[in-house]
């Protein structure tokens, strides 16, 4: 990588024509290009059409951002051709997504939407992903996250600050999805599964090996052929699981 390209991607370019400054660190300045920002964001484009009153010592206009320097830096990585910008957690993702939505930076929004629903986030923090998707009106991601919440007891999930930003309607829709899914699955399965399904209405819960093992063990004394029957019934169990998984996930 050439030194010029390196300086551009570090936002310290010698041919920059505007400086962005984060709200938390006036000393950290991002020397960038109006043409690139304008192409990425109609908000920046409109901003640069207005007179720029404040300037640095080298006469470059300065734009004071309300976002932190960390968020500004992350957002610029999505605007400039930085390969695979790293967003390692939901804590990092949310403020960058908020800035991208505010500034209408479509390229950043699309990339962050993909990062929001990576498997690690969905498996470990599905309720939080749902809340973030609801906050920013990301309907496709909201539906994906809603499905993953079925593996959890929503009321036992950690309380997240992201829940402050969603409506009671969106939260109620999720609880209603759990209720409807739980009832549909309990109708399809026996009473042994009902307690589990009442809290976590997902086939991943009741078809996991531990649950199936306990179910088989519970009838050993009643029927010696049951374990063998359960083994030969595995194909039917998979068919049943597929049918249940095809239940609607619409919130």
From TrEMBL:
Q: Which Pfam families does the UniProt record give?
A: BTB
What residue stretches are annotated with the BTB domain?
Answer: 16-80
Note the Gene3D superfamilies from the entry. Potassium Channel Kv1.1, Chain A
Q: Superkingdom, according to UniProt?
A: Eukaryota
Query: Which InterPro entries would you find in this protein's record?
Result: BTB/POZ_dom (IPR000210), SKP1/BTB/POZ_sf (IPR011333)
Give the protein name, as stated in the record.
Answer: BTB domain-containing protein
Organism of origin: Armillaria solidipes
């Amino acid at each position: 990588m050439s030194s010029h390209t390196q300086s551009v991607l570090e936002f310290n370019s010698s041919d920059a024509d505007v400086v962005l400054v984060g709200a938390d660190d006036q000393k950290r300045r991002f020397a960038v290009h109006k043409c690139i920002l304008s192409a990425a964001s109609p908000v920046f484009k409109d901003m640069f059409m207005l007179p720029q009153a404040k300037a640095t010592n080298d006469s470059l206009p300065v734009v004071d951002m309300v976002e932190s320097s960390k968020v500004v830096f992350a957002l610029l990585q999505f605007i400039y051709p930085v390969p695979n910008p790293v967003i390692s957690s939901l804590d990092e993702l949310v403020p960058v997504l908020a800035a991208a939505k505010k500034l209408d930076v479509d390229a950043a929004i699309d990339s962050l939407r993909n990062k929001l629903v990576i498997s690690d986030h969905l498996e470990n923090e599905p309720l939080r992903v749902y809340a973030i998707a609801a906050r920013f009106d990301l309907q496709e991601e909201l539906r994906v996250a809603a499905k993953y919440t079925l593996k959890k007891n929503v009321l036992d999930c950690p309380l997240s600050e992201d829940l402050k930003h969603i409506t009671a309607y969106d939260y109620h829709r999720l609880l209603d999805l759990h209720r409807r899914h739980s009832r549909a699955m309990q109708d399809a399965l026996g009473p042994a599964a009902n307690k589990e399904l009442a809290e976590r209405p997902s086939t991943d819960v009741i078809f996991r090996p531990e649950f199936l093992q306990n179910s088989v063990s519970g009838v050993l004394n009643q029927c010696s052929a049951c374990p063998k029957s359960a083994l030969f019934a595995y194909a039917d169990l998979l068919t049943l699981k597929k049918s249940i998984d095809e239940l609607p996930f619409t919130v």
